[in-house]
Amino acid sequence: MPLADSALDSHSLRIVQALAEHGSITAAARALGYSQPAVSQQLKRLELRVGLALVERVGRGVRLTEAGRLLARHARTVTGALNAAAGDLAELQGLRAGLVRVAAFPSASATIVPRLLADLGRRHPGLSITYVEAEPPEAVALVRENRVDLAITFSYPGDLVDPHRDSAEGLSVTTLGRDEVLLVVPAGHRFGDAESIDLGDLAGERWIGGCPRCRGHLLELCERRGFVPDISYETDNVAAVFGMVGAGIGVAVLPTLAIDSVGARSGVLIRPTRPGEYRTLHAVTADGAIGVPALGETLRALASLTVSAR
Prior knowledge:
D-Maltodextrin-Binding Protein, domain 2
């Protein structure tokens, strides 16, 4: 008849291992920090559970029986694995080890993500971080499929397709802050001297559209100002947007992170919209995942970076 799962436990196995290593109940008790009677009683209970004698008397001492020696061999393996697991958990708890898989949208790749990776690398060099670039809907799907642990995403107010309302159901969504949306116009533009520009004043301009989500946001903004924008050009390339605006063939709206993701911006002016517009940045994880030390620390570092960037 097979043993019940409750017949063996790590405490009993450690006693058998100590007996094998030290040769007597007294020495085993001393090594484990227990009293000799406590070890004797535990040993008797274990023998009753397994239905076999584990020790036999030899003079004033004891020695393991065949069953005891067999159990001792397994005890070394089990206790070794338990000690290794305890050590690994301590490494994770102390952030000396751990893996965090991150996904984020393109403009975050050149702004938030490098700072995040550098910050974690300095403070917790034992952590391993992997990164993949993905737009918000795809990044949320990666979290749901357990292919990444953390997705850095964004949404616009009034989004018709918001990954944080539908596809993120059942996941944990943390708001990181706002990313201001700014106007990009050619140098020498008629409103170039204004501190901010009302989109309604640009109704007659040609517009440069971006990614589908950004283009949808532009349409929604302009609809609120009472016009349909003439989107003559479309590109996901932020540097190309600056090139087109600088050449005087159109105007555009871009989030601050997208603007910060490129270098020199000659020939263009950047102005706030009136009223101010923004998109919201989010961190998406599995529900309860913040309890994992490495991921929790990554989220705290990310929140700190996005707050300082605002």
